[in-house]
């Protein structure tokens, strides 16, 4: 019999129950016991959902109150002393590492959090010491959760992060120099101990995630697999059977590692992302080893095409036989929303195309049954599925001939500005007349409670569109007045009308749909609800011109139009899986190009196209895949911005500072002005701009907007002074790191006052 399996289930619950409980606990509104009980309730509910769906292999220890990687800190006793010294309750210590703690004389920042591979989930980086000791928790969470499920009559497969991935994803603590992978020998005994404990508790199977196998691994990490799994495998019958799971990429480039993993029970691979790796992996399996075939997408919300998925599994069965294949989700389902059943407002046509975690649980079961008993056993499901797949493929919503025709007519010239930067700059100076060290902000001003209340009223129909528009105009008037008082040089309208920088545009484009409950965890208790791209994208009408034009009409200063770029619109949505992402990006680019041209025609001479997600789209592996991505990503940006005349100044914004390995891409965008996050980084990073002789203008953020702390004028001056070591006075702009929507007004005004004064100081210094 071919079994069905799930690699991990989303833990937030149907109505983001975990988020609510966790935040209530942080706000002292519920007790620790209440929170623990809610966690337990959710775990049970999720196991039952999977069991009721008929899933054979159900995960445990996929639950976490904050982050599953952070859980391993407590599991292995790697809690830095700055947290452990307070002797907090373990749960509070855990949250202190995840989100920092400022309370009753304790003031400790969080550990670093970074993106989990190329997903929008963030994990807390394991942070290790030079003399790191490891100690297995007295009551290891994987054992506790296994027993909890067992007590409820459900036998699960505990999930743990493997030693090589744990150490490869780890870093030395600040001021420490240890190379984490060198700690392998010390860490391995804990895995052995944990696995024996799991076995003793009754766990026959354990899933060990080693997703780093999809990277271009450093030799040291790659070489760590052999000793690690020799040791783990040596447990033999004393330990559980191990499924080693990889996902989000292929492992063909590391295939030789499999030779050292032949004592493991099974190997899981992602056949949604990389179906082509099947043959290579099958050929490298040991004679009895089982293949866990990830054919149900753990990263996206589309209904699985049963026919295609069954073909993939059959293909594996042909080579291995039915006993050696398991049907699985491609990765944990952490990255998809809980259930489609919560969506009451989607229209029936598109609703039938989606499948969230609960629905995907049924999908693995149907596929497993189809290959075990033959298609007749699930004929009804297969027929319904084929119908829905067919309906999606031929729907007028997916295919817009006008969009396709427009894409076919895109020429190489459309990607380039009319002239090179020096000529453009000369034209821009004529109209903009900006001083040295021009000051500006990144777009949004504080989104006050009042703004949210009015937006809510408008969404619910409690106020008319005209009333809402009046309100927005009043907000714009206010921010214009404030910017006048602050004496900034390039104004913004403040984005009061935008709920979210992607959703706002999605709602004004065809091809997008929106959900009401489809939340996915981004980090800790924070969830996002990405819009879904269902079809060809076009712009029926201008999206931002009204607000920008209004703002420009009430001030003599240059007003910056503000757009979200094509790659960010794509990356922060659930993309289509039926056309390549480059095609979707180009459609977005064409829609935005029209907007840029319309803004210019409306008299907006400065236009910023934000691309904060450009870097995170980089493929996990270097080399060709990266170059290909950068080509289409850069082209999309250029296509969206190059329709204007030389006199229009194009800005772009990136809120991350790791642009060293990425410099060429940013430079290739050919934006007249870049603003980048920089206030927390070493100004030395800016050296790349001299080394590469960057010719255009740039505003490295002069202060951090993530905290309410107000920088002093002197701090900003020092910052600018440092930047001047790398950038010339004539190319430097002054701006914060990012938008100010999460800030309050008092600190915003104070910080911008300091910024403007600092800029004036340098302006004066350099104009003499
Ligand atoms: C995450 S980048 C945000 C840019 C946007 N224009 C803002 O100011 O909010
Ligand atoms: Zn930003």
From TrEMBL:
One of its GO terms (molecular function) is 5-methyltetrahydropteroyltriglutamate-homocysteine S-methyltransferase activity. Its EC number is 2.1.1.14. Residues 437-760 form the Cobalamin-independent methionine synthase MetE C-terminal/archaeal domain. Its cofactor is Zn(2+). Binds 2 Zn(2+) ions per subunit. Pfam families: Meth_synt_1, Meth_synt_2. L-homocysteine binds at residues 442-444, 610. HAMAP family: Meth_synth (MF_00172). This is 5-methyltetrahydropteroyltriglutamate--homocysteine S-methyltransferase. It comes from Penicillium fimorum. The lineage of its organism: Eukaryota, Fungi, Dikarya, Ascomycota, Pezizomycotina.
């Amino acid at each position: 019999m071919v079994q069905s399996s799930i690699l991990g289930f989303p833990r937030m619950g149907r109505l983001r129950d975990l988020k609510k409980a966790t935040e209530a606990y942080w706000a002292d509104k519920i007790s620790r016991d209440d929170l623990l009980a809610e966690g337990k309730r959710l775990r049970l509910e999720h196991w039952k959902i999977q069991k009721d769906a008929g899933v054979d292999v159900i995960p445990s220890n996929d639950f976490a109150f904050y982050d599953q990687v952070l859980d391993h800190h407590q599991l292995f006793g790697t809690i830095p002393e700055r947290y452990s010294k307070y002797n907090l309750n373990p749960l509070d210590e855990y949250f202190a590492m995840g989100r920092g703690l400022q309370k009753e004389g304790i003031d400790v920042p969080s550990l670093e959090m970074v993106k989990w591979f190329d997903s929008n989930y963030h994990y807390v980086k394991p942070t290790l010491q030079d003399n790191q000791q490891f100690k297995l928790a007295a009551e290891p969470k994987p054992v506790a959760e296994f027993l909890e499920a067992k007590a409820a009559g459900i036998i699960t497969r505990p999930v743990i992060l493997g030693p090589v991935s744990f150490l490869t994803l780890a870093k030395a603590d600040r001021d420490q120099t240890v190379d984490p992978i060198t700690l392998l020998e010390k860490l391995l005994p804990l895995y052995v101990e944990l696995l024996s404990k799991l076995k003793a508790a009754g766990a026959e199977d354990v899933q060990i995630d080693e997703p780093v196998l999809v990277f271009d691994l450093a030799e040291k990490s790659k070489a760590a697999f052999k000793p690690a799994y020799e040791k783990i495998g040596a447990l033999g019958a004393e330990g559980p059977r191990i499924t080693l799971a990889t996902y989000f990429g292929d492992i063909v480039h590391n295939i030789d590692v499999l030779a050292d993993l032949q004592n493991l029970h099974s190997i899981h691979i992602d056949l949604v992302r990389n179906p082509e790796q099947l043959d290579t992996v099958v050929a490298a399996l040991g004679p009895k080893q089982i293949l866990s075939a990830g054919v149900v997408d753990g990263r996206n919300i589309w209904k699985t095409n049963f026919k295609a998925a069954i073909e993939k599994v059959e293909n594996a069965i042909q080579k291995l036989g039915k006993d050696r294949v398991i049907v699985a989700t491609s990765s944990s389902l952490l990255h998809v929303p809980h259930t489609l059943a919560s969506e009451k407002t989607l229209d029936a046509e598109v609703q039938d195309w989606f499948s969230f975690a609960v629905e995907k649980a049924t999908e693995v079961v149907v596929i497993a049954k189809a290959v075990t008993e033959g298609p007749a056993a699930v004929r009804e499901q297969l027929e319904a599925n084929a119908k829905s797949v067919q309906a999606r493929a031929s729907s007028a919503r997916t295919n817009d001939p006008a969009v396709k025709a427009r894409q076919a007519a895109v020429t190489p010239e459309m990607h380039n500005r009319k002239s090179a930067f020096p000529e453009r700059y000369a034209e821009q100076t004529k109209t903009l007349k900006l001083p040295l060290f021009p000051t500006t902000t990144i777009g949004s001003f504080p989104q006050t409670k009042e703004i949210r209340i009015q937006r809510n009223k408008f969404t619910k129909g409690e106020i008319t569109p005209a009333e809402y528009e009046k309100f927005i105009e009043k907000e714009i008037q206010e921010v214009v007045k404030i910017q006048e008082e602050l004496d900034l040089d390039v104004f913004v309208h403040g984005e009061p009308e935008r709920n979210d920088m992607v959703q706002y545009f999605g709602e004004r484009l065809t091809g997008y749909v929106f959900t009401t409950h489809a939340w996915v965890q981004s980090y800790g208790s924070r969830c996002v609800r990405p819009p879904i791209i269902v079809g060809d994208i076009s712009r029926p009408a201008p999206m931002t011109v009204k607000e920008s034009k209004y703002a420009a009409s009430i001030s003599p200063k240059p007003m910056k139009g503000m757009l979200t770029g094509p790659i960010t619109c794509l990356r922060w949505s659930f993309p289509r899986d039926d056309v390549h992402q480059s095609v979707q990006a180009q459609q977005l680019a064409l829609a935005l190009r029209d907007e840029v041209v319309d803004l210019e025609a409306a008299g907006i001479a400065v236009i910023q196209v934000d691309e904060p997600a450009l870097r995170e789209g980089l493929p996990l592996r270097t080399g060709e895949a990266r170059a290909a991505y950068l080509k289409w990503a850069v082209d999309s940006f250029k296509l969206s911005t190059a329709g204007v005349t030389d006199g229009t100044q194009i800005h772009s914004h990136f809120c991350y500072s790791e642009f060293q390995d990425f410099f060429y891409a940013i430079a290739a965008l050919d934006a007249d002005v870049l603003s980048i996050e920089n206030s927390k980084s070493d100004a030395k990073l800016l050296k790349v701009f001299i080394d590469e002789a960057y010719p255009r203008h740039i505003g490295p953020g002069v202060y951090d907007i993530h905290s309410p702390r107000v920088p002093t004028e002197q701090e900003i001056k020092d910052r600018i002074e440092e930047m001047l070591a790398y950038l010339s006075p004539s190319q430097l702009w002054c701006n914060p790191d990012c938008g100010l929507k999460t800030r309050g007004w008092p600190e915003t005004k104070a910080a911008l006052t300091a910024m403007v004064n600092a800029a004036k100081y340098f302006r004066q210094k350099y104009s003499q």
